[in-house]
Amino acid sequence: MSIFPSPSHLGRRWLLRLLPLLSFTLADRPAYRLFTAQGQAADYDQMLTQLAQADVVFFGEQHNDPMAHWLELQVAKDLQRLKGPGKLVLGMEMFERDVQPLVAQYAAGTLPDTAFERQSRPWPNYATDYRPLLQFARQEKIAVVATNAPRRYAQQVARGSLTALDALPANEKAYLAPLPLKVDFELPGYKKMAAMFGDATAHGGGGRTIIQAQALKDATMAYTIHRSLGAGQTLLHLNGSYHSDNHDGIVAYLRADSKKPLRVQTLSVVTQSQLQQLDQTNMNVADYLIVVPEDMTKTY
Question: In angstroms, rounded to a whole number, what is the distance separating the alpha carbons of residues 71 and 61?
C-alpha cells in the first residue's frame, strides 16, 4: 500500500498547492534570457523566423560558454528545418582556410574522426563544443566552410605589420583576403582593442600590429563568407563575439566587400549578474543578445 496520495486523492486543492512550487522550480533559475538590441524580451521562435530570412547570421559566442555552444546547435537544427535541404551553410572561425579540403571531406562523411582531428588543427575544446555541430552537418549534408585566416599569417602580422605578407607567394596569399588590406582603426571593436594597449598604438607600436592581425582575420572571414553564399541560402557563422559585436569586424568587411546589400543578423552572448533586464552596456551590441548568468559553468 502506497503512502502517497493517489491522483484522485490529490484533487484540486493539492494541485493548486503544487503549481507555485513547480513554477518556482522551472522559472527561478533560467539558464539564459533572450533580448533584442534595445533590451526588450525576445521570443526564440520569432527570432528564428527573422534569422531564416537573412543571408548571413553571425553567432557571436564566448568560446568557453556551454550555453552558447548548445544554442548554436539548436539554431543550426532549427534553421535547417525552416530552410530545407541545401539552403543552410555553416561557417566557422574555428577552422582555417588551408584545412578546407579536410573540413569538406569530414562533412561529406569521407574522412574518419581520428584523421580529421589529427590533421585539421582543431581548437582544444573541439570535442565538447564543436564536434556535435560538425556531426549534425554531416548527418544533414550541410556544407561547412573554414573561414579563418591561417594563424601563422596572423602571427606574422602581429609580430611585424601587414607588410610582412607582401613577400608571400601567390598560392599562400590565396588563403587571405585580397591584399593590400585597409584597416579602419576607428571601428568600435578596434578602438576598444587600442584602449587595451594604451599608447602602444599611437606610434605604430605592438598594439597597432595586433589590431592589424585581428583585421586580417576579420577581412578573410568576410571574404570567405561572401564567396561561400549561394542564392537563397543562409550562412550561419560561428565566431567569437568580438568579431561581430557592434556590427563591425567581420560585418564591416562583409558589407564593404558586397556590391549589393546583404541581410545580416547578429547574435551575441553576454554574461550578467542578473537576467531580468539587459544591462545598459550591452544595449545595441547585436540584433539579439543571449544573456547567461555570470556564474555559468565554463568548458575550460
Answer: 10
State the average pLDDT for the chain: 90
Band of pLDDT at residue 3, cut at 50, 70 and 90: very low
Structural domains in the chain, sorted by start: 32-293 (3.40.50.11550)
